[in-house]
Amino acid sequence: MTQIDYYLSPISPWTHMTGTRPAEIAAAAGVAIRYKPVDPTALFQRTGGKILAERHESRKAYRMQELARWSKLLGLPINLRPAFFPANPAPASYAIIAAQETGGGDMAALVTGLTRACWEEERNIAEDEVIRDCLSAAGFDPALSFSGMLQGAEIYPRNLEEAVADGVFGVPFFKVGEAAFWGQDRLDFLAEHLGVSR
After folding, report:
1. In the chain, at which end, N or C, are there fewer CB atoms within 10 A of the end residue's CB?
2. What's the CATH code of the domain at 142?
């Protein structure tokens, strides 16, 4: 069966801008979607990218303009300077992994809830209370923030290795077989590839 491998980070503003669109495309195409959180700092280090703090000031300024433009275009609010950025994305990533492995809730709602917490609601997604709230709101057992910790910690670095092997160098990134799509602004190409009219 065709599957979309969705590499993401819950601390990424571009994952926030992606919203629920990947899940909507997958549903329209009748394909599965696999959420694969990765450590963006480690991914950049492994694939030649630079973390935000190391980028030239002109690149940082352009990033802010682009985020504001996409926020307006998509009608998706964003606080360009959130109170808790950067935060450690690992605990939220572990929760995403544990929720996916356990099932029973809405994965798209969980991912968007976590990114919304950071980029709209001024909440720290490294805090257990925030993660539990997002799990519960998406229909998952909030106890996964504890019970899924070991499973998440085991799969999280494995996702990174798979990402590097799969040619992934940033987030959000989508793979369907050999076809690669980097960035939330490439979702129309992903939809077209899967025969979904947008």
Report:
1. N
2. 3.40.30.10
